[in-house]
Design a protein that fits this description.
This protein is α/β, with parallel strands linked by helices. Helix content is 36%, strand content 18%. The protein contains 16 helices and 21 strands. It has a seven-stranded mixed beta sheet with strand order 19-20-17-16-15-18-21. A six-stranded parallel beta sheet has the order 2-1-3-4-5-6, with helices on both faces. Helix 6 links the parallel strand 5 and strand 6. Catalyzes the methylthiolation of N6-(dimethylallyl)adenosine (i(6)A), leading to the formation of 2-methylthio-N6-(dimethylallyl)adenosine (ms(2)i(6)A) at position 37 in tRNAs that read codons beginning with uridine. Its EC number is 2.8.4.3. GO terms for molecular function: tRNA-2-methylthio-N(6)-dimethylallyladenosine(37) synthase activity. This is tRNA-2-methylthio-N(6)-dimethylallyladenosine synthase.
């Protein structure tokens, strides 16, 4: 007869291993992390509950290399896990992403308790490398120099039931002096259009109603296959997919932003009236030093054309303040361009040295206090513009795709949150009938703040969707999982730009 303690031991032995992934950096890394989750779950791992904070059997760091202190942050986190690993036999730590691609063997030398180091080109190898490290009882460092498998061909565990990233290209052919991404992710490589559309159709069949086309330089799509109009053709093809309600893309480069793309945006109903296009600086002198292949006049001209074709388009951007050699006159040009562009939102960054980039060794590095002062002036200007632009939304009737987890005060205010077609965040009064993430509601905007809108009146209409059904099915299945299988509840929400930061982000488009 088996004792209760023996039965408990048997359960522990058979319990699947849990994993946790910590993601830093751009949308590419977010997308890669969904693939890493899919790979691990296909290999038999289960997701640790949110907030496990290093208590998983496998902890994966998907790193970013564009910040000056990225390595310090990584090694600090690794150091905090070292004693936990000593007290937990069998625990494994893996480091991937851009910093792993750059530093390679250095990671294991500085943190010898790390089990696996893998790069941006071979994320599909993670489960094999973990098993090899376990069997051989030594660290596995494997960095591929070129892409082994397109990320979207790998298994995935999507964070959202109704919104999905779809990668159309990897790598970048630009040589911006502040950006290290091309060196770490390689030259641009495009997917076949048929493969992209097949993935989108499969996602729609699963209940996804919003997709975001993803590329390091998304509108350069086609350069690898010799078709300059490939991206606009792809947008139009997305418009023919039944059940696909919303199409977005990030991030385009002004150099490749052609009139056929603007026409496709305006003429394809499910391509949303939203454009995130990095400006980086309004100064022609600084843009030249950044090795950006456009100037202020060209950039503002694109925005003018977009607004002429899509009057309600919300345009957002990235701006770097304090690039080496930036004078007060250069900065004033950035302020001028910001006033002219009337951005709905700007993701503003204080320049900091990115190791391995030409800009890091340029003369004319700007003192920190000067950068900070300019940054605060730009933020104040953009806050004013954002608020003014949001006030223009008051009185409009909008369709919102309901989200989950985007309104931190929703519980206290008895509201729900959703995204307008132009991706503005709207908090609205909770209707009497059930509304699920992925469903669509119609509301009237009654109040504007710089970073969100309110619809304080009654909800005018609720449309239940297949996306809402998919969310409900996923959560029902998660709740029905037996105790001990640590999947955790997924975080639901449309992919969105990163919040305003005070240090350099990727900003590489």
């Amino acid at each position: 007869m088996t004792s209760s303690s023996d039965r408990s031991l048997a359960v522990d032995v058979q319990a699947p291993k849990s994993y946790e992934i910590r993601t830093y950096g751009c949308q590419m890394n977010v997308h890669d992390s969904e693939r890493l989750s899919g790979l691990l779950e296909e290999a038999g791992y289960v997701r640790a509950p949110e907030g496990s904070d290093g208590d998983a059997d496998v902890v994966v760091f998907n790193t970013c290399a564009v910040r000056e202190n990225a390595d310090n942050r990584l090694y600090g986190n690794l150091g905090r896990l070292a004693p936990r690993k000593v007290s937990r036999p069998g625990m494994q730590i893996a480091v991937g992403g851009c910093l792993a691609q750059k530093d390679r063997d250095t990671i294991v030398k500085r943190a010898p308790w790390v089990d696996v180091v893998f790069g941006t080109h071979n994320i599909g190898k993670l489960p094999v490398l973990l098993e090899r490290a376990r069997v051989q009882e030594e660290a596995q460092v494997e960095i591929a120099e070129s892409l082994e498998a397109f990320p979207s061909t790998l298994p995935t565990r999507r964070e959202s039931a109704y919104a999905a990233w779809v990668s159309i290209s990897v790598g970048c052919n630009n040589t911006c002096t502040f950006c290290i991404v091309p060196a770490l992710r390689g030259k641009e490589k495009d997917r076949r259009t048929g493969d992209i559309l097949a993935e989108i159709e499969a996602l729609v069949d699963e209940g996804v109603s919003e997709i975001t086309l993803l590329g390091q330089n998304v509108n350069a799509y086609g350069s690898d296959i010799g078709d300059r109009e490939a991206f606009s053709k792809l947008l139009r093809a997305c418009g023919k997919i039944d059940g696909l309600e919303r199409v977005r893309f990030t991030s385009p480069h002004p150099r490749d932003f052609t009139d056929d793309v603007i026409a496709a945006m305006a003429e394809t109903p499910n391509v949303m009236p939203q454009l995130h296009m990095p400006m980086q600086s309004g100064s022609d002198t600084v843009l030249k030093a950044m090795r950006r292949s456009y100037r202020q006049e060209r950039y503002l001209g694109i925005i003018e054309k977009v607004r002429a074709s899509i009057p309600h388009a919300a345009i957002t951007t990235d701006i770097i303040v304090g690039f080496p050699g930036e004078t007060e006159e250069d900065f004033e040009q950035t302020l001028h361009a910001t006033r002219e562009a009337r951005f709905a939102q700007a993701f503003t960054f204080q320049y900091s040295k990115r190791p391995g980039t030409p800009a890091a060794t340029m003369e004319g590095q700007i003192p920190k206090e000067v950068v900070q002062e300019r940054y605060m002036r730009l933020v104040a200007l953009q806050e004013e513009i954002s608020w003014d632009e949001n006030k223009k939304q008051v009185g409009r009737t909008l369709e919102l795709m309901v989200a989950e987890g985007e309104g931190r005060k929703d519980g206290a205010t008895h509201r729900l949150s959703g995204r307008a077609p132009d991706n503005r965040l709207v908090h609205f009064t909770k209707p009497d009938q059930e509304v699920r993430p992925g469903d669509v509601v119609t509301v009237e905007i009654t109040y504007a703040a710089p970073h969100h809108l309110l619809a304080e009146g009654p909800t005018l209409d609720v449309r239940r969707t297949r996306a809402g059904d998919a969310w409900e099915k996923r959560n029902t299945e998660a709740a029905a999982k037996p105790v001990g299988v640590m999947l955790g509840l997924p975080k639901i929400g449309a992919p969105e730009p990163l919040p305003v930061a005070t240090g350099s982000g990727c900003g590489c488009d």
